[in-house]
Write a structure and sequence with these properties.
Elements: E1 26-30, E2 40-44, E3 55-61, E4 67-77, E5 87-95, E6 103-110, E7 119-128, E8 134-142, E9 146-152, E10 157-167, E11 173-182, E12 185-192, E13 201-211, E14 217-222, E15 232-237, E16 244-252, E17 259-265, E18 270-276, E19 287-294
Antiparallel strand pairs: 1-14, 2-7, 3-6, 4-7, 4-17, 5-6, 5-10, 8-13, 9-12, 10-13, 11-12, 11-16, 14-19, 15-18, 16-19, 17-18
Length: 295
């Protein structure tokens, strides 16, 4: 029996990213303190148009004078019908141009054969002032069913935010992870659906890099204790007491063809939702929500 997912839609406004202690949170990385980060804020971008187009994009812009630290996005399918999980995120990209406004861009895509439901996508940007911040991209291309792209920061830097992008999405490939691979690198993982592709495709990973902030650590919490075959896997995590969220990341620990990320939300708590865009009876996940945290 397919489990009916609880409603996660909510009214969203610009907030200051802050979080408290959550029981059972696992700290998976920690490094010595070196630098401080000033005030940060989460900017909710406008919702995209609502329709059933194959793809739909949205962006959230940082206020003038601030930089993109990280971001996230979500897809919402109206009515949550039987095919509501067939729409997933295929782009989560921090944009830090040489001049002009920083932003975070997301793209939602319908997985083949699509959906008759209407849906929309929304982007969120975590913004602040961080000396030495820059964005690094890593790329991979091939025809293998799963691809992993890595973006590498310098040894004296840390990953503050992550992202991934399926170049020219065709409704046959899903993002299954956008995550800090280590404290100094970010990884994006993507998997073809069960029918696969006969052509090459390209994946990009993004890392927002900066000198190590004070109290830097990465925390994680799974959607469940074991893999399962639920149509949706939902995970929440908070940064530890005395620290605040700089970024959110997501990992399907055991992805299956057709599973993908639908929500990566930098709120309080941080939230991740992975879905079966193509229903499967195979066990998959659990899915990790990760918080990139500092004081």
């Amino acid at each position: 029996m397919r489990v009916k997912r609880r409603s996660w839609a909510r009214a969203v406004t610009s907030v200051v990213a802050a979080a408290g202690l959550a029981g059972g949170v696992q700290v998976v990385a920690a490094v010595p303190a070196e630098a401080a980060i000033g005030p940060i804020q989460v900017i909710a971008g406008p919702m995209s148009a609502t329709n059933s187009e194959p793809t739909r994009s949205a962006s959230a812009n940082c206020p003038p004078g601030t930089q993109i630290i990280s971001g996230g996005g979500w897809v919402f399918v109206n009515g949550r019908g039987a095919d509501a999980d067939s729409v997933v995120l295929s782009q989560m990209q921090p944009v830090h141009p040489p001049s002009g406004q920083d932003s975070f861009v997301v793209l939602g895509q319908e997985m083949a054969p699509g959906t008759s439901s209407t849906w929309w996508v929304q982007a969120f940007a975590v913004c602040g002032q961080v000396p030495g911040l820059h964005v690094v991209v890593g790329r991979t291309q091939g025809s293998q069913p799963e691809q992993k792209a890595v973006a590498q920061c310098a040894a004296n830097e840390r990953v503050l935010g992550v992202g991934g992008n399926l170049v020219n999405p065709v409704g046959k490939v899903t993002l299954t992870a956008v995550t800090p691979l280590t404290a100094t690198s970010a990884q994006a993982v993507a998997d073809e659906d069960a029918t696969g592709l006969n052509s090459n495709w390209q994946l990009e990973a993004y890392a927002v890099c900066a000198p190590t902030p004070a109290g830097y650590q990465i925390v994680a919490k799974p959607s469940s204790s074991t893999a399962n075959s639920d149509p949706e896997q939902v995970a929440f995590v908070n940064c530890l007491l005395g620290t605040r969220a700089l970024g959110v990341a997501a990992v399907e620990l055991s992805p299956r063809p057709g599973t993908g990320l639908q929500v990566v939300f930098p709120g309080s708590p941080l939230e991740v939702v992975a879905v079966e865009s193509t229903p499967t009876s195979l066990l998959w996940g659990p899915t990790l929500a990760q918080g990139i945290c500092a004081t």
